[in-house]
Amino acid sequence: FYAGGSDRVVITTAGNVGIGNASPTGLLHVSSSALYVSSTSGNVGIGTTAPSSTLHVISGHIQFPFVTSAPAATECDVAGEAGRVVVYSNTATAGDAQLYVCDWNGTTGAWTVK
């Protein structure tokens, strides 16, 4: 797509899409390295064009929304939920946020408060 005298969205012959990037090297490549999806691994990079994990954030923070009740056991009962993270806070009390991580031991899961 062309606007204002330059390419704004580019789709290469390989199927890579560039937004604000005329030469995308990944499946989705936005404004240099602001957002990048690897065409080989499917990993997503924010601030990097070489994401080494499923989500790789450089020079930033990931913010989780608070939930107002502790997670239920049924939200951590299959292997695919291992590693799930929930931030729980009783919003009536400042400073009481708890980080729950779904741990999996090979047969069962359980929430661990970190």
Compute the number of helices.
Answer: 0
Order of helices and strands: EEEEEEEEEEEE
Structural class: mainly beta
Strand-residue proportion: 35-45%
Q: Sketch the major β-sheet.
A: 6 strands, mixed
The proportion of residues forming helix, as a percent range, comes to under 10%
Number of strand elements: 12
What's the overall geometry? elongated
Overall mean pLDDT: 80
Distance between the termini: 47 Å
Strand order of the biggest β-sheet: 3-4-5-6-7-8
Task: Describe the 3D structure.
- The structure is a single chain.
- The chain is an all-beta fold.
- It is 0% helix and 35% strand.
- It has no helices and twelve strands.
- The chain has strands at residues 2-3, 6-7, 9-11, 17-19, 28-30, 35-37, 44-46, 55-57, 66-67, 85-88, 98-104, 109-113.
- Strands 3-4-5-6-7-8 form a six-stranded mixed β-sheet, with no helix packed on it. Strands 9-10-11-12 form a four-stranded mixed β-sheet, with no helix packed on it. Strands 1-2 form a two-stranded antiparallel sheet.
- A hairpin with a 6-residue loop joins strand 6 and strand 7 (44-46).
- It is elongated, with a radius of gyration of 20 Å.
- The relative contact order is 0.11.
- The mean pLDDT is 80.
Attribute tags:
single chain; mainly beta; 4-stranded mixed beta sheet; 35% strand; elongated
Give the arrangement of secondary structure elements.
Blueprint: E1 2-3, E2 6-7, E3 9-11, E4 17-19, E5 28-30, E6 35-37, E7 44-46, E8 55-57, E9 66-67, E10 85-88, E11 98-104, E12 109-113
Parallel strand pairs: 4-5, 7-8, 9-10
Antiparallel strand pairs: 1-2, 3-4, 5-6, 6-7, 10-11, 11-12
